[in-house]
Amino acid sequence: MSDSANVRPFVLVHGAGHGGWLWARVRDRLTAQGHRVFTPTLTGLGERSHLLDASVTLETHITDVVNVFEWEDLTNAVLVGHSYAGWVVSGAMEQLEKRVSALVYLDAFLPDDGQRGVDFLNEAQTEAFNAAREKGEISRPGPNSTALRIQRPEDAAWVDSKITPQPIGVSLDPVKLTGARDRVATKLYVRTPLFPQPRFDAALARCQADPSWKTAIMENCGHDPMVDDPDAVVALLEAL
C-alpha cells in the first residue's frame, strides 16, 4: 500500500482502436496501492463502439476526458495519454491545467497547436484513412497485435479480440493549444523503441532536450507496455 500522502487519482487514456480495457492490469495494480484510477473509453471505441458515428471528432474525445474530471471532482491527478491519446490529453489540458499535477505521454504523439492527426499517420494508416474516406466510411481499421509488437502470444490474441475501428473524424480537426500542457510541473515522455514510429522518436528527443521534461525508455516492450510489462508502467507512474 502506498503512503497516504502519495495516493492520488490516475486518469489513463487509451490509444487508437483500443478502449479502457487496455489498462486493466495497470488499473488493478494501482488500485491495490490505494489510488483512485479511471480508464475512460473514448466515444466510438471499445464498449462504446456502438456510439461510433460521423459526428465523433477530436473535441468529442477531449470532452470524454474532461468530463471524467468534472463528474468525479478530480484534482492533483496524474493524466496519462497513450499513442493517439497524446492528441486528446494535449487538448484536454487546456481545460484541466489546475486539476493535473503530472502529465504522461506513453509512446504517444506530442502535437503542437494547429496540427492534425491525419498529417501524422504513417503510410499504411494514411492508405487506410484515404480508402475509408473514398468509400464514405466513418472509421478505419484499428491496429493489430503484430503492428503493435505485443510480446506474448496470449496477450496478442487478447488484444486482437478487443480492437475496434478508429473514427476518422478525430484526425481531421486541428488541435487547439495555448501552452497549458507545457506549464504542468511534472511531465514524463515514455518511449518503447521496439515499436517503430519516427514521430515518437522525435518527441522523445524533443523532451530529452527540454529540462522541464522527464523521459524514460522501455526497451523490452511493444507499443502497449501496459500489456507487456504492467509492473514497469506502474513503477514509472508511482515514481512521479
From TrEMBL:
Superkingdom, taxonomy of origin: Bacteria
Keywords associated with the record: Hydrolase
Span of domain AB hydrolase-1: 10-235
InterPro entries xref list: AB_hydrolase_1, AB_hydrolase_fold, MES/HNL
A Gene Ontology molecular function term of the record: methyl jasmonate esterase activity
Short name of one Pfam family: Abhydrolase_6
PANTHER family from the UniProt entry: AB HYDROLASE-1 DOMAIN-CONTAINING PROTEIN, METHYLESTERASE FAMILY MEMBER
Name this protein carries in UniProt: Alpha/beta hydrolase
Native source species: Pseudotabrizicola alkalilacus
Native organism taxonomy: Bacteria, Pseudomonadati, Pseudomonadota, Alphaproteobacteria, Rhodobacterales
